[in-house]
Structures are given as structure tokens and as C-alpha cells.
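Batch manifest, entry 17 of 40.
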Amino acid sequence: MTEPAPPARPGIRALLAGPVGICLANYEFGVYGTMAALVINDLFFPTLDPAAGTLAAFTTFAAGFLAKPLGGLLFGRVGDRYGRRAVVVGGLLLMGVATIGIGLLPTYATIGVAAPVLLTVLRMLQGLAVGGEWGGAATLAVEHAPRHRRGLWGGAVGVGGPIGSILGALTVLPLTAFLSHEQFLAWGWRLPFLVSAVLLAVGLWMRMGVAESAVFREEVATRTRHRGDLRRVLTANGGSMALVFFLAARRSRASTCSTPTPCPTR
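Output type: C-alpha cells
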């Protein structure tokens, strides 16, 4: 099959639609990690001693990471069947709704043990969304890019990551600086999650305006179906994939070790 050429002028929206979703993903993960260190144990695990409560809080944080590979598999299949645009719009919507849901979630004092259970479910939904987000956004960007700019467009998707982390820190910092501990526990911790609605709205506006990629449209038009793609990729590129995996794991380990510990509110 001859690979279709992307549009000559795909537009700035197609280029920016990828990073905006990754921005929301990193914003949410960064905010939740901070909240897990500050207040999640008090709000959702008050019956446990402080050490066990903190461990339980970070277990809910880990639930999002554990769900990421499943999200990649699930949304990858959706992208092959229904299109890349369906993945990036659906993934962004799922991630945004789950994040806002955390901001609206009643605590243990209100609904008891259902609170940490629902919190874990929402975290796993976020992980599923993020797992599909990276692959879907990068694929859509590369398939829309001019042939000589595919590396640049694919790499630009990752720019949203640090931007999201910075936005998350800038959102939490003034709350911890100017609210008392009681105010932060009562309502302040919810604000960063609810603010994500702004990023969600911007992301949906940008992604809804991006057309499906020409590659997928041609597959649909010619009724082309590729089976066993994962097996072929592992067979042909297993060594390269392993190298990339360990390099990424090394980078993640370095980032985790260099992450500062948030100071408690006064």
C-alpha cells in the first residue's frame, strides 16, 4: 500500500493537539502526587496510623501507573479500529472527567470506606487514559506531519509533559502558602483538580478540530486490516524496544529520585 501524503499545511492545531493532552496528564499526576504526600492520608485513610495512611495514599498514586500499560493496549486497539482521533478525544475526556471527579469526591468522613475505593477507581481510570494518550497523540501528530517533519512533530508531543508538571506546581504552591492547614483540608486540596477543567476544555476544543489522519482514512477506504502487528513489531524490533524501555526507565528513576518533597501546610 502506498503511504498517503499528509496535508501540505496541516495547521498549528494538529501540531499542538498532542502536547495539550500530555500537559493535562502530567498536571494531574503531579498534583495527585503532591496531594498524596500532604492530605490524602488524612482525608481518605484517617483510621490508619500516619505511616500506614501515607503508604495507602501512595498506593492509590501507584494504581494510576499500574493501569497505564492496560490503557495503551486498550486505546491502541480502539485507534486501529475506530481511528486515532477517537483515541485522543476519548482519552482526554476520560482523563479530565476522572480528574474532576477526584476534586468532587466525598471523603472518608462523609461516605466511609467507599471514599478510598472510589478514589482508587478514579486513579485507575486516569492511568488508563494516560496509557492511551501518549501513543494516540504521537501517532496522530506523526501521521499529520509533513514527511520531513515527522520526528519534530512526534517529539513535540512530549513538550506538554514538563509544562503540565510546572502548571501543577504553580497551582498547588499558592494554596499551600496562603491557606491554613484546616482550610487546605476542608476545600483547598480540591481546587487543583477542579482547575483541570480549563485544560480539558482547551484540549477538547483543539482536538475536536483536528481531522482524522490520511493514513487511517485510506485504511478504511481500502478495507485494509493488519493483524499480528504487535507480534511483528516485537520480532523485528525487540532489541530496539528493550533499549528504549531501559533508557526510559532510567530517566524515570532519575526524575523520581530528584523530586523534592513538598513541605506541609502550616
